[in-house]
Write a structure and sequence with these properties.
CATH topology: Pnp Oxidase, Chain A
Number of helices: 3
Strand order of the largest sheet: 3-2-6-9-10-5-4
Number of domains: 1
Radius of gyration: 17 Å
Length: about 170
């Protein structure tokens, strides 16, 4: 059995580079807060549980958006498609311009989803778990709607860049 050395370089820049080797999908998390859409892009989304139905994403503790977004009664989650790289950058950019030109739908409870996403989830916060410089947000699903596309292709975040899956 080989043991790992513990004196490796764990510099945050090096860690980000190594973590980036593993590709992930990208989602938009959004809601109406005080009558206006508030949202962000997250590349840490994953399914968690079928019973109860849970998904999660991680948010930096330094996020300026999360304190407002977490006040919403319901959160919408949209799985972004491979044509959404500009949208993902926009959702990570200037707060006042995050929804400029985007077509969205809001539920009666305030969950906001992008109309042309691959799938839409209506969720509520189930639990927040502190995890170092991030918080893991567990979301309980209340409704799920796939896009119904014949060949959906998700937006992929890999090595700090957006891309698409290559058919194999």
């Amino acid at each position: 059995m080989t043991t790992l050395r513990t004196n490796q370089d764990l510099d945050p820049h090096r860690l980000r580079e190594v973590f980036g080797i593993f590709p992930s999908g990208v989602v938009a998390v959004a809601a109406l807060v005080d009558g206006a859409p508030v949202g962000l892009a997250a590349s840490s989304f994953t399914s968690v549980s079928l019973d109860p139905p849970l998904v999660s994403f991680s948010i930096a503790n330094a996020s300026k958006t999360w304190p407002d977004l977490r006040r919403a009664a319901h959160l919408g989650v949209t799985i972004l498609a491979d044509h959404h790289s500009t949208v993902a950058r926009q959702l990570a950019g200037a707060v006042s311009q995050r929804f400029d030109g985007l077509t969205v739908t809001a539920t009666a409870e305030g969950a906001v989803t992008l109309d042309d996403g691959l799938a839409h989830f209506d969720t509520t916060i189930y639990r927040e778990v502190p995890a170092g410089d991030h918080t893991i947000v567990l979301l309980r699903l209340h409704a799920v709607r796939p896009a119904g596309l014949s060949d959906p292709s998700p937006l992929v975040f890999h090595r700090s860049r957006f891309g698409r899956l290559q058919p194999g």
